[in-house]
Amino acid sequence: MRDLFITGLIFSLLPFVFKRPWLGILLWSWLGYMNPHRLAWGFAYDLPFSMLVGVVTITAFLASKEKKDMPWTRETVVLLLFVGWMLVTTLFAFYPDVAWLQWNKVWKIQLMIFLTALIITDRRKLHWLVWVIALSFGFYGVKGGIFTIINGGAYRVQGPTETFIAGNNELALALVMTIPLIRYLHLQETRKWIRIGLASAMVLTGVAAVGSQSRGGLVAMVAMGLFLWLKSRNKIVTGFYMAVVVGLIAAVMPQAWYDRMNTINSYEEDQSAQGRINAWHTAFNVAKDNITGGGYELWRPAVFRQYAPNPFNVRDVHSIYFEIMGEHGFIGFGLFMLLGLLAWIRARQVIKRCKKDPDKKWAADLASMIQVSLVGYAAGGAFLGMGYFDLPYHLMIILVLAAKFTGVLKPEPRPIVSFVPAARRPPSGQFG
């Protein structure tokens, strides 16, 4: 029954995509982030819904009379260079067969990211996109928060199988990044009952992130929470929500959770942590010896035997930084870090230009919350291999679009200074 409902819903929405291609971006984002078909147990589970929606969206957009205007900014140019460099590294990958399979996933994701920049053409569409992303992850946040409270934190909160957020660590990072987006929607909402719902969703999503029992997720949660409080308009209200989350965690989580989190301070004795550090050294050594890195999916025994300090401790890299460094070399790592830096600078630019303008205040709020979200990604990603996760790239494009719709991409007008030449002095002796 669930399979029939999901399949019927998606196919019933496709005709609307033909008329309005921007709805295809929303539908693709819902499928990519929430993965509703992975919640079914029959034929719908493996159906390529995302590919179908992507093809329909591209076809509809090309056939439409809408202006095809790509905002070529420093962010989109660097992202395009990064994608191009990943293609180069795949050509020289240590394990070509699996590398090409991963490349096939990555380029399709990035294509839809660029299509977002093309198809989302105004603030209203952008606002709906943020709603779809927040609700997609918020579904697991609310569900997971209630699950954690009911079960006293005894079980881990995990995402749908065979997705980017399948594991508890990956879901925790996604939820941490979602909380600021929910806060943005909360700031823009005027209807009281929706504001209450969004506030509740923030609290439950925070509880769910902790209920995942992910140590990396906890680090991301602390970093994101601190920055969220610093960037908040109303620090008292934000502090209250945080206090509620902390109170629920203290009341619900069992001693086993505290024991697991305390291992962060004793990583020297933790085999998992030592394995990650060994993999990080491996990534650095691969990048040092190969300008193109090792390509996707290089974390295999033969590579560790050649490049690792401990050749017999073979583990996944579990870090966005060393994942990119090992798989795409120092050039890929540099482009990845530059992309994050440029997004941060763009967010500051949007905040500076829009925060005092009532008509553009929404963009300053959005940029602030995306900064908070990226802080969570940067902190939690240090311990998670999610370098190709859609969300941070999508948020960077959303930043560019917010800047575009508010005129920030145009040069800031300079104040006009009038020059009035001084009056000529009268000839000497003209006045007694």
Q: Could you name the key traits of this structure?
A:
single chain, 432 residues, 3 domains, disordered C terminus
Protein architecture, described:
Helix 2 (21-34) runs antiparallel to helix 3 (49-63) and helix 9 runs antiparallel to helix 10. It contains 16 helices and no strands. Helices cover 69% and strands 0% of the residues. The protein is mainly alpha-helical and 432 residues long.
The number of distinct structural domains comes to: 3
Poorly predicted parts: 428-432
DSSP strand count: 0
Q: What portion of residues belong to β-strands?
A: under 5%
**Structural class by SSE content:** mainly alpha
Ends distance: 107 Å
Q: What's the helix count?
A: 16
Radius of gyration: 25 Å
Summed over residues and divided by their number, the pLDDT gives a mean of: 89
Residues in helices, as a percent range? 55-70%
SSE series? HHHHHHHHHHHHHHHH
Outline type:
globular
Biggest sheet details:
none
